[in-house]
Write a structure and sequence with these properties.
Layout lengths: L34 H22 L3 H5 L13 H9 L2 H32 L5 H10 L5 H14 L7 H4 L6 H12 L3 H9 L4 H12 L1 H16 L3 H6 L8 H11 L4 H33 L4
Length: about 300
């Protein structure tokens, strides 16, 4: 009887089913996934602006055509020539620029003084005064319109640019926003300057304000937008067409020349352009200010 030893069998070949699954590669986008949603929304909101720009270089016949033309057959600057040459548009533009520039400068100066006082100085009734100031933000303009008009009339400013500038010299929002930003700054920097003999005003203008550029940019942009786009108060306080602001003049211009749609569209483009440039130029500072201000009390 012979014993046979079993032959060693070759190792079984690994099949594809027995192999460990390979990890799936994640698709990495060169941008945030939110952009897939935000980009179409941005294009949707940009459609009126694009249509305004295209209409401003169309002829009146193309604008009045039905159905309307989606693309101009050629570039026509007749509307811009009519606005800049035959109307008071340059004067209205200058009036709006003067009012907005003075309002922005005054809000930055007085807002910084008031915001720093509420943030760093403790005096009797400071919290009550702060609450009362913030409460004025909840009062609609329609309630203060008549008293403001009477005050401007007593001062002899009606039908002048002063009637538009004086009520906008300082706003509670500017004081509040700058106060909140000043609270987020470390006190050690100011205390070191006080030990060196600096006064409060010098500390404010040499140390605090250079660190507060995002908040200052936000106040400047929002004040500029408010004064530049204001229509209700100039409609009440201004009577003569040479003192019109751009919004008020454009409204009357549109009513008088409603058939010249190319001129109306060109005027709207020139009105929107400064606002758009101001926001695009300060949007980074605007976002930094809103994210760093908070509600520290």
């Amino acid at each position: 009887m012979t014993l046979t030893t079993p032959r060693p069998t070759a190792p079984a070949r690994a099949t594809a089913k027995d192999a460990p699954p390979r990890p799936r590669r994640r698709i990495r986008l060169p941008f945030s996934a939110w952009h897939l949603l935000l980009a179409p929304l941005a294009l949707l909101f940009a459609i009126p602006l694009v249509w305004l720009l295209l209409s401003s270089v169309m002829s009146d016949a193309e604008i009045n055509r039905f159905p309307p033309a989606l693309w101009p057959s050629g570039i026509h600057f007749d509307g811009y020539r009519y606005v800049l040459g035959n109307a008071l548009f340059p004067r209205w533009f200058l009036n709006s620029l003067i009012v907005s520039a003075v309002a922005v400068t005054a809000n930055l100066f007085f807002g910084a003084l008031g915001g720093y006082a509420f943030a760093r100085m403790r005096f009797a009734g400071s919290r009550l005064l702060m609450v009362l100031m913030l409460a004025t933000m909840a009062v609609p303009f329609q309630l203060t319109m008549i008293p403001t008009f009477l005050v401007m009339k007593r001062l002899g400013l009606i039908d002048t640019l002063g009637a538009l500038i004086v009520p906008s010299l300082v706003t509670p929002f500017a004081v509040f926003l700058l106060r909140q930003f000043f609270l987020s700054l470390p006190r050690e920097l100011e205390e070191a300057a006080w030990l060196d003999g600096c006064s409060r005003l010098r500390v404010l203008f040499t140390i605090v304000l250079p660190l507060s550029r995002p908040a200052l940019s936000t106040v400047a942009v929002l004040t500029f937008l408010t004064t530049w786009n204001d229509l209700t108060w100039p409609l009440i306080a201004i009577n003569h067409d040479t003192q019109y602001t751009l919004q008020l003049g454009l409204t009357t211009f549109q009513g008088q020349h409603h058939t010249r749609w190319s001129a109306v569209m060109a005027g709207n483009v020139l009105t929107v352009l400064p606002v758009l440039l101001a926001f695009l130029g300060a949007q980074k500072s605007f976002i930094r200010s809103l994210t760093s201000t908070g509600l520290k009390g």
